[in-house]
UniProtKB/TrEMBL annotation:
<comment type="similarity">
    <text>Belongs to the GFRP family.</text>
</comment>
<protein>
    <recommendedName>
        <fullName>GTP cyclohydrolase 1 feedback regulatory protein</fullName>
    </recommendedName>
</protein>
<dbReference type="GO" id="GO:0031965">
    <property type="term" value="C:nuclear membrane"/>
</dbReference>
<keyword id="KW-0472">Membrane</keyword>
<keyword id="KW-0963">Cytoplasm</keyword>
<dbReference type="InterPro" id="IPR036717">
    <property type="entry name" value="GFRP_sf"/>
</dbReference>
<dbReference type="Pfam" id="PF06399">
    <property type="entry name" value="GFRP"/>
</dbReference>
<dbReference type="InterPro" id="IPR009112">
    <property type="entry name" value="GTP_CycHdrlase_I_reg"/>
</dbReference>
<dbReference type="GO" id="GO:0005829">
    <property type="term" value="C:cytosol"/>
</dbReference>
<keyword id="KW-0539">Nucleus</keyword>
<dbReference type="GO" id="GO:0009890">
    <property type="term" value="P:negative regulation of biosynthetic process"/>
</dbReference>
<dbReference type="GO" id="GO:0044549">
    <property type="term" value="F:GTP cyclohydrolase binding"/>
</dbReference>
Amino acid sequence: MPYVLVSTQIRLETGPTMVGDEYSDPAIMNYLGARKTTMLGNNFSEYHVDDSPRLVLDKLEKIGFRVVTMTGVGQTLVWCMHKETD
């Protein structure tokens, strides 16, 4: 999977950071130290880390991911990351 979405709430820019959904690559989630959680009332899971988004982006860059775009959606910041496949 060559794409990863990273997001955080504006008031929480020091963490936690959402780094994937239930279909994300487990190897990447393990590398980031992410934990899979399901919020009460949701029928889907998400991966979170305690790191700030900047640290997550740095870690992903080290394994070949690059920022494609970034945006703010309401009170949420979202980065779309991509890794070229061989």
